[in-house]
Amino acid sequence: VAKVPTECVIGVDLGGTNLKAGLVEGSLAVRARVERVIAGLGREELLDALADAVAQLRESAEVEVEAVGLGIAGLIDSDSGVVASSTHLPIAGVAIAEVLSERVGLAVLADNDANVALLAEVRDGAAAGEHVALIVALGTGVGGAIAFDGEIYRGAHGAAGEFGHIVISPDGPACGPGCRSRGCLEAFVGGSALARDACAAAERDPAGALGQALADGRVIDGPLVTELALGGDATALAVLTTLGQWLGIGLLSLANVFDPDVIVVGGGVSAAGDLILEPARRVLAERAPTLISKHVEVRPARFGARAGMLGAAILAREAAAMTPLRRRGKVAG
Ligand SMILES: [Zn+2]
């Protein structure tokens, strides 16, 4: 007879393009999952999709669902619970946890997606047991989060850890949509920046594999550049090396501010692994104070595409364990 699992929670990763939801056990095993494309949905459609995903998972569960955790690509005002800004989601101004809780009749905890990704890494991943841990999440944009002794630090208003918007070149390229600055880390090491730089490199070297891919009409993105670099294409490799060096410049500032034990690098672009992490580590080794450089470790994230969903589940489970949750929305912090 199969052991009856402990109560489950539902973890939801609400990214700019996809909604990924899972019914998650205490062991972080995922019993069921729902995934759908949400790009282009309006506010009401998006809230419907969220509520539907939760309802589907609840139906599939043979156990009581305790709570729902939600990691969103956006900033949540920690006082009001209202989404203050989100580049790709039409939910700015919405008290997302409260609204979803009303719809599904369960307690809902919401937090920024990088915060929940780091929560997963500090509980059971690349930053487990560390005193001071940071994550830099290299997606289309660049997110970040901070943890001290296993607790996420969210700042005075819920906006701490926005490492993507550290300015590393004041006159540098424009940053992503929603950012008023330029020359931000995101403008050098995010997925959009990688695609931009790779296209420029392909045009300069039309005979190389990257140039050939461009001529063939292939989409020049992170996975393709990584594939070509691993295949030995010097141009693709140079693009990733340069990206890794810029990442290192960003990590150098973080290292000087936080003196961390570990900086976890996650997100889709981090699939390039040591092709970008090694150049970044070299910058730290050469430029950081030795007291920092001899200790700090730059590690790949353990939880790749599942980080948001699992971290959101952990957020919900821990909140449920701490206090009896009223059936209403709550923001982490
Ligand atoms: Zn920016």
What does the secondary structure layout of this molecule look like, with pairings?
Elements: E1 8-14, E2 18-24, E3 30-37, H1 43-60, E4 65-72, E5 75-76, E6 83-85, H2 96-104, E7 107-112, H3 113-124, E8 132-138, E9 142-148, E10 151-153, H4 186-189, H5 191-204, H6 209-215, H7 222-230, H8 234-258, E11 262-266, H9 274-287, H10 290-293, E12 297-300, H11 307-322, E13 329-331
Parallel strand pairs: 1-4, 4-7, 7-13, 8-11, 11-12
Antiparallel strand pairs: 1-2, 2-3, 5-6, 8-9, 9-10
Helix pairs in contact: 1-2, 3-11, 5-6, 5-8, 7-8, 8-9
Bound molecules: zinc ion.
Can you describe what's shown?
The structure is a single chain. The chain has 333 residues and is of the alpha/beta class. It contains eleven helices and 13 strands. The chain has helices spanning 43-60, 96-104, 113-124, 186-189, 191-204, 209-215, 222-230, 234-258, 274-287, 290-293, 307-322; strands at 8-14, 18-24, 30-37, 65-72, 75-76, 83-85, 107-112, 132-138, 142-148, 151-153, 262-266, 297-300, 329-331. The strands form three sheets. It has a six-stranded mixed sheet. It is globular. Residues 165, 175, 179, 181, 184, 186 line the site of zinc ion.
